[in-house]
Prior knowledge:
Oligomer: heterodimer
Helix content of chain B: over 70%
Largest sheet of chain A: 6 strands, mixed
CATH class of chain B: Mainly Alpha
Helix content of chain A: 25-40%
Number of strands of chain B: 2
CATH topology of the domain at 69-189 in chain A: Rossmann fold
Number of strands of chain A: 10
Strand order of the largest sheet of chain A: 6-7-8-3-9-10
Distance between the termini of chain B: 36 Å
CATH architecture of the domain at 69-189 in chain A: 3-Layer(aba) Sandwich
Distance between the termini of chain A: 35 Å
Structural class of chain A: alpha/beta
Strand content of chain B: under 5%
Number of helices of chain B: 11
Largest interface: A-B, 26 and 20 residues
Strand content of chain A: 25-35%
Largest sheet of chain B: 2 strands, antiparallel
Order of helices and strands of chain A: EEEHEEHEHHHHEHEHEEHHH
CATH topology of chain B: ABC transporter involved in vitamin B12 uptake, BtuC
Amino acid sequence: MLKLTSVQAGYGRLPVLKGISLHVRQGEVVCLIGGNGAGKTTTLKAIAGLLPIRKGQVEFAGRDLTRLPPEQIVRRGLALVPEGRRVFATLSVTANLELGAFHRQDKKEVRQDLEEMLARFPLLKERAHQPAGTLSGGEQQMLAIARALMARPRLLMLDEPSMGLAPRIVAQVYDILKELQIVGVTLLLIEQNARAALKLADRGYVMETGRIILDGAAADLREDPEVQRAYLGKGYQEVWE
Amino acid sequence: MFLQQLLNGLTTGSAYALIALGYTMIYGILGLINFAQGEIYMCGAFVAVLLLASGQVSFYLAFAAGMAAAALLGLALERIAFRPLRGTHPLVPLISAIGASIFLQSLALLLFGPNDRAFPMQFTFQTISLAGLPVSTLQGAILGAALLFMALLVAFVRYTRYGKAIVACALDRDTARLMGINVDRMVALTFLIGSALSGAAGVMMAIYYNATYPRMGLLPGLKAFSAAILGGVGNIPGAILGGLVLGIAESLGAAYISSGYKDAVAFVILILVLLLRPQGILAGWQRH
């Protein structure tokens, strides 16, 4: 469904991605793990069109997205929940959700989706008319996910959905991702919280300094001694769980 | 006397507020002070006056044409003077704006000459008594029209899809793009609306002062800039409040201190705000 072929991208003259190739099949949950500065966020930004791709190609549903701007890419069915949630703080929760569907012309169905989203996220319904900036971090993350879903994406990308959240809230966020997985939403997820991500995902890629160094089924990656040492903190498992 | 001055102040203040809205909206979305806003105001006045002088069009049509011409000028400025400079140092578009302002003033001087033009239509001024207050119907009409435009703008920003999209672009451009919002289009729309409001103010003040001339936008432009700062630049209710407060302060200053200092009042306020409360009087309130 989504296919990256030797994608290179970076900021200014600084190369960050040094040739990334990966793919996501329909209905799959794929996660991208790696330490700080590995290029995970950059990869998602490049796919979403926020960063120009210097070399390589991004294909989605058989069409080339490589040179499209972000506002066109979301129209093709690829939505990104950005790092740090980035809700529109002074706008109401409802307005944030409406903006998620900005490009859609089917007004009636947008209204339905809005109702559905508020029903699925009761916390947001209670705060529907509050400015999004007054929500807690976890609520903002829910809102950011709901807002992206308002675009009716065929593939949803999430950049560190657990960042800065309390463990209990992280579990709630992952419950929602699990629900999305069950209804067949395709997810591409990046995480520093590799444990949570690999539990949910079908497959995973491990990134280091702008390259993919390992890939495989999530279950295999969880057992991989190198991954365990570097990203799962083996030996501390008992402390965490 | 006091109440009459208050009303005079509100009338000119409503024009400052309309221009200040242009400054503040454009700043909100681009982080840019468009110093040619006063010339957009002048353009609106000239187009309406020239059309009316031709005797071919009705007052309302001339008014609408003045607003439309101002809006188109704003759009053209954005395309020619600002869009090519995006991503440069913030001083660069500022200088470009000042350049555009000088260019437009000189162009108007060349095309229309330096003399004042009277408004080509006579309005029958009446002074009616409203709750014991003498109120000029002209002032009432200007104030009413200005408040109507402001209410329309606030409703547009708050309740329409495009209004919310403009706010989204002002808050977080990248995330707005992820929502499928075309930022360039929203910037253009902002220039269009902000400039149309300035054009409306231009026509109204051309009637009020009965004078249209190439440099007419200079002082109102600078005062509206002060008003935008007073309200907290980027803040829409702040620009409205700032414009009205400035107009009143100026009018009262002229009446009770000295009319010679009338124009100084706005800039004294600007300096005081920058020194004491640079975030504007409405800072800390919800921005939109």
